[in-house]
Every structure is written in C-alpha cells, then in structure tokens.
Design a protein that fits this description.
Blueprint (H helix, E strand, L loop, with lengths): L3 H17 L3 H23 L2 H18 L9 H20 L27 H9 L3 H12 L4 H8 L3 H28 L1
C-alpha cells in the first residue's frame, strides 16, 4: 500500500506525463489542484492579493511553457513552488522591496525546547501573525507546515542552502510563537 506521500508523488508523475503529452484536461487538473495553494504561498510572500494574482499568472505561463522539460514528474510540487518563488522574487525586484532574513545559521540538529501544539491554535491568529513575519520566514513556514515539504525540498524551492533553511525555520517558529503568545496575553487582558 502506498503512503500518502508516495500516492501524491505518483499522482504528480501521472499529471506531468499527461501535460507533456499535450492533454488539455491535464493542465486544467494541474491548475485546479494547485492554484489555491500556490496563491496562498505567493500571497504570503508578496504581501497583497493583487500582486499575488499577477505573480500567479506569470507562474502558470512559465509552468505551461516549461512543464515539457520537467524530467522528474514526482518533483512537480517543489518545481512549481520554485517557479512561484522565482516569480515572486522578480516581483520584489520590480517593486524594489526584495525580502531579507535576519536569521543566523544554527547548528544542524538543534532542537527547540517546548514545542507548542500548533494544531490547537486559532487559525485566524496564526494567519495574522504570519503577516508580521519577514518574507523568507513566512515562506519557509508555509512550505514546511502547510505543504509538508522536507528541508531538502524547501532548499530546492528557495535556492537557499540546507543550513539556512533550517535556520530560517527555527527563527520563524520562534518569532511566530512570540507573536502568538503576545496575542494571547493581549486577548486575556482585554
């Protein structure tokens, strides 16, 4: 029996093959399966619905032009997010507001003490707190928690070394935790 990840990979491979054979329905299936997730990712990265819609349109044009060259259909999702990442960076350059991250690399294997049960948090508070993070921190959290990507896949998407991905994720989780704790205290005082 296939695991969920193996099933997703097999489905992605089949979808890529169908797209590469020029099947129109395959492109529609690809857009239907990924548009909402890619929009959410791009929106968190570029900061506005309007910019996200513009970037996403560029993403789909690039995907339709380049999917024929994708050699590993199982790598579809990281590849899509890499295309989205590159288009979002281009948008930042056009706007002259390219994101920066202030995180320092951390030791490999460093663990965070006292992990919070993120599943128990109110989703609206998490989304609001994500808006207060830097672009690179928002990006790694989105890819790691919402897309379930591995460090290696995130490194592939962002073009950052594995150590920097781990560092950004570490600092992003720590900052998000602080923001959420501050919100909880403010809610309790109100």
């Amino acid at each position: 029996m296939l695991s969920m990840a193996e099933g997703d990979r097999a489905r992605d491979e089949l979808l890529v093959i169908r797209c590469q054979q020029g099947e129109a329905q395959a492109y529609e299936d690809l857009v239907q399966a990924m548009e909402r997730k890619l929009f959410y990712y791009v929106r968190r990265f570029v900061g506005s619905d309007e910019n996200a819609a513009d970037v996403l349109q560029e993403v789909w044009v690039a995907v339709f032009e380049k999917v024929g060259k994708l050699k590993d259909g199982g790598a579809l999702r990281p590849w899509l997010y890499r295309v989205a990442h590159d288009k979002a960076i281009s948008q930042f350059r056009r706007d002259r507001t390219e994101p920066t991250a202030d995180a320092e690399p951390i030791e490999e294997g460093a663990e965070e003490a006292g992990e919070t049960d993120w599943n128990a948090l109110d989703a609206s508070r998490v989304h609001a707190a994500l808006d207060d993070l830097s672009g690179p921190h928002r990006e790694v959290l989105t890819l790691y928690f919402l897309e379930g990507m591995t460090y290696a896949e995130i490194a592939q998407v962002t073009g950052a070394p594995m150590g920097l991905v781990k560092s950004r994720l570490h600092y992003a989780k720590r900052t998000l935790r602080r923001l959420l704790e501050k919100t909880r205290r403010e809610d309790a005082d109100a």
